[in-house]
């Protein structure tokens, strides 16, 4: 029998990919398209949803051809940048405005007003999320208030996160979202299976616009034959961070992964226990299979790879992202320089949407390379703060599994091990997000009976062990915390 493959559509913040996997986890092909980032005003970040769809379809078409036709593909899995909101007209399937991206801070005032009115404790207890422009609800409300066509459409207006948008386009009109993506909207209670009327009223988002919430695996929908040459079943959906956690095989309580892409996202498996953070971490749905939920505690850092991109594109200090590795390695220390990477506000555990970046400790002797090194060090510093917040919430890490485009940086992987004083493990293939979506789709298509079976798709890992003297670690952390205290008060 000819082997059947799994097609993953991985819609990231900066690019869209389609990746073909064999059931043993080997990759059989990749197609990729960059996405245009629109920054119309400070604090605003938008994507063109139509461009996302066209790029995704083009990549999928390429991979279906590489596979030898639609009947060679057992299932599609979709994983996506979370929280980003698309608004479209259900009658035409056309977006009515640009997608508002997760990094967008335009609803900071609305969030401040909600906090001031005393709503945060309710929202946090119910959704596991703090009030911040990051989440979808205030973005949806902004569209209703600011795009005249939105209200005019009435019930014909559809809201969805990116997986929802892609499912709509692929199936020709199914309006669905999965539980992991739904848990990021701030409109679903963590323990519930449906939208929460009180949260919808508070956030000003009528549920008529929202998709149906479904499991993360199963027969979720079939592709319109005209698109890919066959009615390929969509069998897996997951937000990118949940997918990466699955792809890292974090199935036991306490297992933790950190994905370093545009931002950095750390998730610890909490099992069936509802995560209730006392330290401004997020509670989120990790898995929903057969209606059964597993939860995770999450720390979201908004700026990681985007800091490297900023060094390259705005400052022009490096030619390629990977240059940061050689520079950090060749620069013996930070020379007392610390960089606060709050280029898109600050996420967990600080949650300061208004914070801006800073570089402190400059002297006449400071070199450009020391600033680059300070930028790279800031990633492990932020991760260390998260580790302490997780431990205080009863989720101590034993090791950290890393992935994402930026984790290819060996210097950063070692610096994380050094600053966390924990072993850091990195899979040979750092595209764990796509792998997790492939595992879910494989389960949904019946190629695997369980997550434990799907884990056979995982590659070998490399381990980085702590090697820094405790005094050096303490000195760096003291410098970092002094800088935070100065800038965040
Ligand atoms: P996303 O899925 O969020 O679009 P990726 O996982 O593709 O992001 O990671 C890309 C990011 O990682 C970019 O922001 C890039 O600057 C950064 N990056 C890639 N390789 C390296 C490297 N070797 N060292 C440091 N940063 C890197």
Automatic annotation (TrEMBL):
According to UniProt, the name of this protein is: Glycerol kinase
Q: Which lineage do the record's taxonomy fields give for this organism?
A: Bacteria, Pseudomonadati, Pseudomonadota, Alphaproteobacteria, Sphingomonadales
List the keywords (alphabetical).
Answer: ATP-binding, Glycerol metabolism, Kinase, Nucleotide-binding, Transferase
A GO cellular-component term linked to this record: cytosol
Q: Which residues form the Carbohydrate kinase FGGY C-terminal domain?
A: 258-444
Family to which the UniProt record says this protein belongs = Belongs to the FGGY kinase family.
Source organism per UniProt: Hephaestia caeni
Gene Ontology terms: biological process = glycerol catabolic process
Lineage top rank: taxon: Bacteria
What Pfam families would the database entry show?
Answer: FGGY_C, FGGY_N
Report the GO molecular function annotations. Answer: ATP binding; glycerol kinase activity
